[in-house]
Amino acid sequence: MALAFLLIAILCLVRLFFIQVVKAEYYRDKGDRQYLRPSTNIFDRGSIFAKKKDGAIFALAGMKTAYLVTINPRILENASSTYTKLSQIIELDEDDFIKHTSDKTDPYEEIASKVEQGKAEAIRKLGIKGVTIYKQKLRSYPFGNSASHVVGLLGYKGDDYLGRYGLERQYEKVLSRKEDVSFANFFVEIFSGIGSSLSGDIAENEGDIITTIEPVVQKFFEGELTKVKAEWQADQVSGLVMDPKTGEIIAMSAWPNFDPGGRQTDLSALTNPLVEGVYELGSIFKPLTMAAGLDSGVVTAKTTYNDKGCITLNKKEICNYDERARGVIPMQEVLSQSLNCGSAFVTEQLGQDRFRQYFEAYGFNEPTGIDLPNEATNLMKNLDSPRIVDYATASFGQGIAVTPISLVRAMASLSNGGYLVTPHIVSEIDYQNKLTQKVESKSGKQILKPETSEEISRMLSLVVDTKMPKVKMENYTIAAKTGTAQMVDSASGKYYEDRYLHSFFGYFPAYDPKFIVFMFIINPKGVRYSSETLTTPFVNTSRFLLNYYQVPPDR
Fold it and tell me: pLDDT band at 41, cuts 50/70/90?
């Protein structure tokens, strides 16, 4: 009997701890909401945080307190006078207000929501009989449009109000909150959380999430992309900063963006182009082709070929961007001068089967696994073709379309020793049951030899040192490549003559990279080459990151 009483006492103490500590705020709010509509749920939701490099956290999404103004028509004495007094504090429609007061059998009508605390206190001080103020909780996005495609937003799906985009959707089961949790469910939650923690899997308990987004870097990066958009009047501007060794995404931005807490008028802006869009990204693919050639041993940096300016494969002509012949030149010049014919030469040396195998190894035939919803499928059908010309055009990023996030993952393998990473946004989940789940960064399969990674990094660094004087730094090695691709007219299926997609990627320091930066813009006006549009924002971003993180010089 003593053991039984002790067990009951322990259970009661645990339940008391759960009510007074774990769910304290929920029950305080529930006490504030004891009005005549007990069926109304108290809205609550977990928070999404960004973490600065010093460990300080900032809310990207959280809960804020506002107030609900209600009336009781049964006891409200003078509707007209009440309207006059209230309308001096909050915005009200007179006809709508009078309509709410007309049914004297109705004990409860809401006349205003999301009222600020100061205004709510002013209404309370009026002391009007039949007017009551209740606390309500609302979703808050303190950073506004910043990182909106990462955070996402809430919306209705039928009668359910839940995450529809971004992390709000991806982690719906973690962020959502039940109205109440029974005594039995509390223990289920505790022990399931322990089991999940021990197994290393991400549990589906309620909690908050901490992202890999660094808020200072995010703000700076967004500022650079905004300048690009303004200067070149591009239809779309996007980019990200990632740790190429871990896959942690430090900044991610796309324009047009949106305010997660506002009314959405442009539904197309809600789509994250870095994850949900597929594009022909052009010459930025050439380092992947060259790395495949180096890794397989069919070429070296010193291998030469006779560049004729244009070649014909399967009765289709392929030309360099300027159609000019270079004569006998080494592979280094294929990257340094961005030569389509040189990239096609490497593809021929590889052969179709081996070329396809390397591009599959880069992960283009599978999702990256990024923890954001609606990841698009790459369009790689040309690599099932028997025609060598389709492989040649794919070698310089035409005829195949990929998501930017899958390209960045492949590019990261050039810098990190030759292995794939899993790009991810969330670093930690803090559960309400007081357990914490770390999202570990795991190295994927080795797809290139370490010496291949080092050699392609050397070649790309030489591209910067010899062909990109604005990008070159005296004390840091920078590996980078630009891409300019003609855009396809969806109606005719032909390439536009005057519309381009510009891209730029780079990682640094080249032989021990801390960051990989990728940017792309769609249809900039009055300019043809990406070196003209994206060099400055890349330089500004790289200098900022090296300084902000105090990265030691490597030369």
Answer: low
